[in-house]
UniProtKB/TrEMBL annotation:
Transmembrane segments: none annotated. This is S-adenosyl methyltransferase. The lineage of its organism: Bacteria, Bacillati, Actinomycetota, Actinomycetes, Streptosporangiales. Signal peptide: none annotated. Keywords: Methyltransferase, Transferase. One of its GO terms (molecular function) is methyltransferase activity. InterPro entries: SAM-dependent_MTases_sf (IPR029063), SAM_dep_MeTrfase_SAV2177_type (IPR006764). GO terms for biological process: methylation.
């Protein structure tokens, strides 16, 4: 296999033949036009695109934001440990590749509960591990992370477009438990779908159904609250395409909005 290029193996024994398979990781990949997806995931992505015409563009912009956030974390802040919760399927460029291009000693712990075995192998590289877990199992995830990262050293907690697909009653409380385990000098990077992008309640319901009901979009204010009062670095919590600096014309209105920001712990 060509380095860095992920090819879906439909005969993966751990994943069956894909019939009726819809994973959040797969829908996100399909929205970005990735080929390594099941037909049902591509169909779900098509339904979402019909309900929100900017959905595909925003998925791509979110991924680009994650990569810029990693450059900021490692290159600007000198934080060389990343705990990537809800990391998603491997893509052409992954968090550890961006981090290690800046600092070859950078270490990454990837956590997801939906990445197929073929994808997991591609996320396991020198300086990285992949842990298959529910991020709501905080103690277990932190225990595994501590086998690979020195959690007494500054660490970036990366939550790229994941908290709106995690079914928890107290998302801020979940994040706080991770934050409390990290030392001063650490960072919290988070992006999240906002329900203030113009989609009507009916359109939002169509999108939620495409995610098999596992979607909890929030207001800008509620997303801001997920940072638990931590100080956000400039420019604060903004549309992902405009972070960290506004140089582009922006994303056309089309129903959805994805905002992101980085805070100091
Ligand atoms: C939209 S993708 C985001 C991928 C990546 N973080 C990014 O921003 O490019 C959301 C990911 O969160 C994962 N996820 C959802 N709920 C999760 C949970 N409870 N525990 C672990 N991973 C979860 C999904 O499997 C999916 O891969």
């Amino acid at each position: 296999m060509t380095a860095g290029v992920y090819t879906w193996n439909m005969s993966d024994p751990n994943d069956g033949d894909g019939a009726g398979t819809v994973s959040q990781a797969g829908i996100y990949t399909a929205l970005q036009g990735g080929a390594d997806t099941y037909v049902d995931e591509r169909e779900a992505a098509a339904i979402i695109r019909r309900a929100a015409s900017n959905a595909a563009q925003l998925a791509t912009e979110n991924r680009a934001w994650v990569m810029r956030a990693v450059r900021y974390i490692v290159g600007h802040q000198g934080v060389r440990q990343i705990l990537d919760l809800g990391c998603g399927k491997p893509q052409r460029t992954n968090v550890h590749q961006v981090a290690q291009a800046i600092d070859p000693e950078a270490r990454v712990v990837y956590v997801d509960n939906d990445v197929p075995t073929t994808g997991r192998a591609l996320l396991e590289a020198p300086g990285t591990i992949y842990h298959h877990a529910d991020i709501a199992d905080v103690e277990e995830v932190l225990a595994v992370a501590a086998t690979h990262l020195d959690l007494c050293q500054p660490t970036a907690l990366l939550l790229g477009s994941v908290m709106h697909v995690v079914p928890v009653d107290d998302p801020a409380g979940l994040i706080r438990r991770y934050v409390q385990a990290l030392p001063s000098g650490s960072l919290l990077a988070l992006s999240h779908v906002s329900n203030e992008g113009g989609a009507t309640p009916a359109q939002q319901e169509v999108i939620r159904k495409a995610y098999a009901g596992r979607l909890w979009v929030r207001t800008f204010e509620a997303i801001h609250d997920l940072f638990g009062g931590l100080e956000l670095v400039t420019p604060g919590l903004v549309d992902v395409w405009s972070w960290p600096h506004i140089t582009e014309v922006g994303i056309p209105e089309g129903g959805l909005r994805v905002v992101g920001g980085i805070a100091r712990i």
